[in-house]
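Narrative of accomplishments. A recurring question from our advisory board has been how the design workflow behaves on a single, concrete structure rather than in aggregate. To address it, we present the structure tokens for one chain from the evaluation set, followed by the sequence designed for it. No filtering or post-editing was applied between the two.
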């Protein structure tokens, strides 16, 4: 029969990698706790209109990447392609500003975009998103950039570079847009087909086109940074001073325009080496108009999201795999010994010791093989004879074959205490001096 395969651009994660994921996610949550951010969990599916209205009709995400379907009630729903829209929807729905003037929220979880899969780009991928809602001041932008850069460093992602830009505001951007369109029209014949179309619908996107000819034209294009109104320029100057004072280096990049329409003023991306074209590991910016645009009051906000799949690819190349604790393995012969082994397993696990046995209950030899495969640190041997005498045999898998400690007998009641102290001795030996 034909086998069903996993959907293109999606992946299964097996225990070894899942351990990485858990570590990364728990370290990030602990880091965000230091800054006072609390977790929000929103549904994976939202009404399609939410994303159209917030991300923008003329963006790649909305035009061609959303997983949209009609549900059984005839409603148009979409698997979330990002998290900001959902957080703001929820913020407005619960009138959160009435109970807290500033909300600090984060989320971790899968997002869905129907992009062309390649290394570091998937159709289901995971983001950590962080949103600070209710503060218009540059201090909020600086806090966000600080979290993005230092949060990633805290989980081991170093050698990153920060790209910084300002997209202006509804006061200064329209005039810049016109200036840009005039310039692009003068060079239209040398732009790629996509950009000739984008030039009219979303001209800022031409600035980050990857086609060589377009790149050259974009390099000479008028810069938003030179067209900022006084307030946007002052805001940007203070953001720069703030991140300089906490010693985060950055590059001004006037061609870095984000793929979502809700941004105003500061935008930023974090790039990491070794990832080829998918080197943006995190990105975000200020989005002062979004709460109002989605039907709430006029409340400013700033945030970012980090692509955890890409970060993990990088970490796998640069730091050691988190190891699972080596288990204690219980090998038993006969029904009585198996039952007594169950008690030993439970006592060990209650003491926080990882303990396993062979669910197939084969011969002692087969069970020993399984213990080896599991990387057991100690093996406990239980036979009818041992049960009668109230003892069990412990085999130290790391001891030399001729060592008197290789195999020894102890009273069953002492097994937890004995192994706790031996494992503690291991830990002291392994700890770096
Ligand atoms: P974004 O730049 O679209 O921003 O996505 C953030 C990060 O998600 C990217 O830098 C990248 O690392 C990762 N990412 C995006 N698409 C994929 C993919 N197909 N496969 C793997 N990783 C991917 C946002 O989503 C905004 N919501 C960020 C934000 C929060 N702005 C304000 N608040």
């Amino acid at each position: 029969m034909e086998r069903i395969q996993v959907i293109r651009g999606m992946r299964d994660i097996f225990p070894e990698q899942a351990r990485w994921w858990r570590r990364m996610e728990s370290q990030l949550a602990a880091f965000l706790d230091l800054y006072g951010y609390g977790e929000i969990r929103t549904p994976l599916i939202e009404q399609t209109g939410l994303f159209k209205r917030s991300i923008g009709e003329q963006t790649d995400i909305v035009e061609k990447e959303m997983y949209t379907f009609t549900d059984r009630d005839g409603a148009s729903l979409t698997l979330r392609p990002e998290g900001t829209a959902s957080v703001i929807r929820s913020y407005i729905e619960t009138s959160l500003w009435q109970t807290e003037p500033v909300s600090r929220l984060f989320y971790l979880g899968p997002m869905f975009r129907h992009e062309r899969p390649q290394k570091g780009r998937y159709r289901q991928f995971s983001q950590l998103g962080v949103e600070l809602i209710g503060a218009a001041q540059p201090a909020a932008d600086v806090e966000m950039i600080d979290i993005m850069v230092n949060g990633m460093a805290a989980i081991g992602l170093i050698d990153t570079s920060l790209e910084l830009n300002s997209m202006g505001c509804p006061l200064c951007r329209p005039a810049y847009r016109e200036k840009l369109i005039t310039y692009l029209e003068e060079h239209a014949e040398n732009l790629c087909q996509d950009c000739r179309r984008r030039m009219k619908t979303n001209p800022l996107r031409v600035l980050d086109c990857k086609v060589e000819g377009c790149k050259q034209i974009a390099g000479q294009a008028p810069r938003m940074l030179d067209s900022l109104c006084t307030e946007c320029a002052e805001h940007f100057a203070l953001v720069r001073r703030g991140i300089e004072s906490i010693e985060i280096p950055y590059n001004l990049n006037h061609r870095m325009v984000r793929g979502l329409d809700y941004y105003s003023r500061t935008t930023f991306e974090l790039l990491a080496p070794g990832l080829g074209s998918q080197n943006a590991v995190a990105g975000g910016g200020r989005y002062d108009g979004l709460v109002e645009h989605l039907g709430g009051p006029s409340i400013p906000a700033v945030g970012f999201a980090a692509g955890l799949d890409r970060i993990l690819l990088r970490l796998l190349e640069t730091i050691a795999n988190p190891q699972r604790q080596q288990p204690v393995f219980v090998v038993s012969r006969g029904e009585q010994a198996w039952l007594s082994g169950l008690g030993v397993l439970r006592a060990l696990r209650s003491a926080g010791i990882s303990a396993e046995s062979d669910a197939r209950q084969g011969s002692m030899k087969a069970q020993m093989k399984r213990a080896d495969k599991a990387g057991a640190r100690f093996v406990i041997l239980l036979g009818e004879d041992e049960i009668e005498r109230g003892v069990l045999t412990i085999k130290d898998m790391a001891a030399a074959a001729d060592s008197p400690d290789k195999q020894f007998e102890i009273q069953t009641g002492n097994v937890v205490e004995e192994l706790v102290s031996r494992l503690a001795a291991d830990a002291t030996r392994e700890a770096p001096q």
